[in-house]
Amino acid sequence: MALVVETSDGPIEDFFVNQVAAAAVAFAAKEATFSATDLPGDLSDKERAAIADALIESGLFVQIGGYTHG
Fold first, then answer.
1. Which of 11, 17, 32, 33: disulfide with 21, CB 3.0–4.6 Å?
2. Full pLDDT tens readout for the chain, 70 residues
3. How many CB atoms lie within 10 A of CB 45?
4. Measured on CA atoms in the order 18, 23, 29, 34, is the torsion positive or negative?
5. 33 CB contacts (<8 Å, ≥6 apart)?
6. How far is CA 30 from the centre of its chain?
7. Which residues face 2 on adjacent strands?
């Protein structure tokens, strides 16, 4: 699964995830705000944190409190 972003220059594939993380990324794409602990799937806390880090590092999501990444 790839996270594709529509820009004025056309679509950009921002990052790719495997099937284990696909539900979490799809969830994040639909939600205005969420916590890393809300990410669905059979994921460990470490995997949820890694997905949250990747979403923040993509520049498409911002941290608004509580969660310390990196």
1. 17
2. 666 777 888 887 766 778 888 899 889 989 989 999 999 999 999 999 999 988 888 887 888 876 555 5
3. 9
4. negative
5. 64
6. 11
7. 16
